[in-house]
Design brief:
The chain is mainly alpha-helical. It contains 8 helices and no strands. The chain has helices at about 5-25, 30-55, 65-80, 80-85, 90-110, 115-140, 150-165, 175-190.
């Protein structure tokens, strides 16, 4: 896939995740610096874990783009604070967009590094969901992936759709679209119909 496309996905995903993190920090009454830290952590957390596990220097350490992008997100939330903070659906929208695009970029970068598909699926899920886990810890919430709500599983299913397109030898670009659309659709359906995974119960 063309590197420019990955860069575009990175930008949109970073902006979306940063906005989602800053929006939640604002709802918790964090100050501007605290909100920026939460937004940046949300945007770079998953990718940092991915790069470390792949044996690479974390991407944000060699490119200030991600720091600037988070600053843009902070300004965006300041300007549209009333709209973003009061409506939960705006947080869900940005979080879902970031989740889908980061799952895709995580898979792409892993495959480009020469790792097999099953590793790419795991790294895609980690890239997509990792930042959200760190965000929830910072704002003192139970991470979404540990609740009943379907979150990281959407990333895994998106990775599966990417792999299926590869197996079927579909034209270039279909894999990326299938991955992103699957993540978004799974999240939408899960929230719309309150779909949950079974709960593991201990002895009563």
């Amino acid at each position: 896939m063309d590197i420019n496309f990955i860069t575009i996905c990175d930008f949109i995903g970073t902006l979306a995740f940063a906005i989602s993190g800053i929006r939640l920090a604002s709802a918790k009454h964090f100050d501007l610096f605290g909100a920026y830290v939460v937004g940046l952590t949300t945007a770079i957390g998953g990718g940092t874990m991915r790069d470390l596990m792949l044996g690479h220097a974390p991407f944000w350490m060699t490119d200030s783009f991600y720091l600037v992008c988070t600053a843009i997100a902070l300004v965006w939330v300041i300007i549209f604070r009333k709209l973003l903070v009061r409506q939960n659906n705006t947080w869900f929208l940005f979080d879902t967009i970031g989740l889908a695009l980061f799952t895709l970029t995580g898979m792409e970068k892993t495959l480009q590094a020469g790792f097999p598909f099953w590793t790419a699926v795991i790294m895609g899920a980690m890239t997509g969901a990792g930042g959200g886990v760190m965000r929830d810890v910072l704002i003192n919430e139970v991470p979404l992936i540990f609740r009943k709500e379907i979150y990281a599983l959407a990333c895994v299913l998106g990775g599966g759709a990417y792999w299926l397109c590869y197996v079927l030898n579909l034209p270039k670009g279909y894999d990326a679209a299938a991955c992103a659309v699957t993540v978004v659709v799974v999240r939408l359906l899960a929230v719309r119909f309150s779909l949950r995974l079974p709960i593991l119960k201990g002895e009563e």
